[in-house]
């Protein structure tokens, strides 16, 4: 007599811990702000003790951030690195290359695409305008996110708790030219201005004599996944604009926002902020 065949197991039943972990990550990714453990346990159908255990391991690995003073949990830096890894791969680069080339044609300045990587931005795509010199923002280069226009555009799309997790104190904030925010409070004020303005800027904080404007590209969950930026010589733009120099910068910023909006729609998101 042949033994009865073993019924097939449902996907995930052989690795319940992995299934529960991914369920928690997906839930946290859909929340606008960090949440308490009871809410996580209910949403993911987990015993409270199991939720605590999973969150503890995920905090150790950097995928979740624990805010003990508020008794809340949110996504950690490692989770953003995973998201940035996806953004660095072929889909985003392929759809962005032509858009950046068009941006360069319209403005005559170098354009680049960067993704958040911990406390840095990683440049994954560059389109150089004819006759323009190379910049420090070459493909593969990492720069401090709080000093770059691309990084500020991305950080402005995160919650205050997420920014605190990335920059918990002044020791996390390096400088290049002596300019830029030196404390989390100064960075918070800068990001508020960025959100109100609708685009990010930097002036001489990465390279002396150079400035940038940037806007964030968002995915279908409205998470910032990349920053589109233009970099230009400060003196040249001021000379071209004369007394109306800021208007010229606004024109460049408008072109950047237009490109970010285009890429956001390609990723299934709404309008870039």
Automatic annotation (TrEMBL):
Q: Name one GO molecular function term.
A: DNA binding
Q: Where would one find the signal peptide in this protein?
A: none
SMART domains assigned to the protein according to its UniProt record, in alphabetical order: HTH_ICLR
**Residue ranges of domain HTH iclR-type in the record:** 15-77
Q: Where is the IclR-ED domain?
A: 78-269
The molecule here is called DNA-binding IclR family transcriptional regulator
Q: Which residues form a coiled coil?
A: none
Q: Which UniProt keywords apply?
A: DNA-binding, Transcription, Transcription regulation
PROSITE patterns the record matches:
HTH_ICLR (PS51077), ICLR_ED (PS51078)
Name the source's superkingdom: Bacteria
């Amino acid at each position: 007599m042949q033994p009865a065949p073993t019924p097939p197991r449902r996907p995930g039943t052989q690795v319940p811990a992995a299934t529960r972990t991914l369920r928690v990550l997906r839930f946290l990714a859909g929340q606008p702000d960090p949440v308490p453990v009871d809410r996580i346990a209910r949403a993911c159908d987990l015993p409270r003790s199991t939720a605590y255990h999973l969150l503890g391991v995920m905090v150790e690995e950097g995928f979740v951030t624990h805010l003990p003073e508020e008794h809340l949990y949110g996504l950690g830096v490692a989770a953003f690195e995973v998201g940035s890894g996806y953004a660095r791969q072929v889909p985003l680069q392929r759809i962005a290359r032509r858009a950046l080339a068009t941006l360069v044609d319209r403005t005559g300045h170098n354009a680049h695409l960067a993704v958040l990587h911990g406390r840095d931005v990683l440049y994954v795509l560059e389109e150089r305008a004819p006759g323009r010199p190379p910049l420090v923002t070459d493909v593969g280069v990492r720069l401090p996110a709080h000093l770059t226009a691309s990084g500020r555009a991305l950080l402005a799309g995160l919650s205050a708790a997420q920014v605190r997790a990335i920059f918990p104190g002044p020791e996390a904030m390096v400088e290049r030219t002596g300019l830029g925010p030196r404390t989390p409070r100064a960075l918070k004020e800068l990001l508020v201005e960025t959100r109100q303005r609708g685009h990010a800027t930097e002036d001489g904080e990465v390279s002396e004599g150079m400035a940038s404007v940037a806007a964030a590209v968002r995915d279908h969950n409205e998470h910032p996944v990349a920053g589109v930026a233009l970099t230009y010589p400060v003196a040249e733009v001021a000379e071209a604009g004369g007394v109306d120099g800021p208007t010229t910068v606004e024109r460049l910023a408008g072109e950047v926002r237009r490109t970010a909006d285009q890429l956001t729609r390609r990723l299934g998101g709404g309008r870039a902020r």
